[in-house]
Structure formats: structure tokens, C-alpha cells
Amino acid sequence: MSDFISMLFAIFVVNPLQAEVSDRLRGVAVNELIGAGRACIAAEGPRLLERAQANWGWAAANAIGVSFGMVDPATLLSGDNADCRRVLPLLRQNGERSNA
């Protein structure tokens, strides 16, 4: 059952998170930041999947929230990862612009 939850969470949260990071960083000219965004997702994806397996309610709430645009997928990223710390301010800034 936890494999099924992980698969659904990956489809509805992790994959859109990757797409969102790519879209928001697309206008950034610095390849370094794009690489940091990819590294951030590579590091955070397994952590998010572990959390989804451990807490199905959290997984369902965030999967629905991300799918319907009520939860910004970038808010699920941890600031504990150095690559994520580099890109989170930019993702938040670009997210605010797209919501305006």
C-alpha cells in the first residue's frame, strides 16, 4: 500500500514540483541556479516520498492541494538542503509574480 501511495504522490506532487521549478527557473540566465534546482529536487524527492509513506493524510492533502493549485509545490521544499536554499528565494519571488 505504501508503494501505491508513493507512486500517487510522485505523480501528483513530485513531478509537478519538478515542472514548477523548471518553469520558474527558465528565465534565469545562470546555469548554476538551474543545476541547483535540479539537485534540490533530486535530494528532496526521496524525502517527500518518505514523508508521504509515513503520513498518508499529509500526502493526500498536499497532492490535492498541488493538483488544484491551492498549494505552491515550492513550499514543500526544505531549506535544509544547500541547493534548495539557493533556489528557494527565487522560486518564491517568481511564484508571487505568477500569482499576481
Shape: globular
Low-confidence stretches: none
How many strands?
Answer: 0
Mean pLDDT score: 83
Structural class: mainly alpha
Beta-strand fraction estimate: under 5%
Distance between the amino and carboxyl termini: 39 Å
Please characterize this protein's 3D structure:
This protein has helices at residues 2-25, 31-54, 56-67, 82-99. With 100 residues, the chain is mostly helical. It is globular. The protein has one domain. It contains four helices and no strands. Helix 1 (2-25) runs antiparallel to helix 2, helix 1 packs parallel to helix 3 (56-67) and helix 2 crosses helix 4. 78% of the residues lie in helices and 0% in strands.
Outline the fold blueprint:
Elements (H helix, E strand, L loop, with lengths): L1 H24 L5 H24 L1 H12 L14 H18 L1
Task: Write a brief structural summary.
The chain is built from four helices and no strands. With 100 residues, it is mostly helical. The termini are far apart.
Question: Which keywords apply here?
Answer:
100 residues, mainly alpha, globular
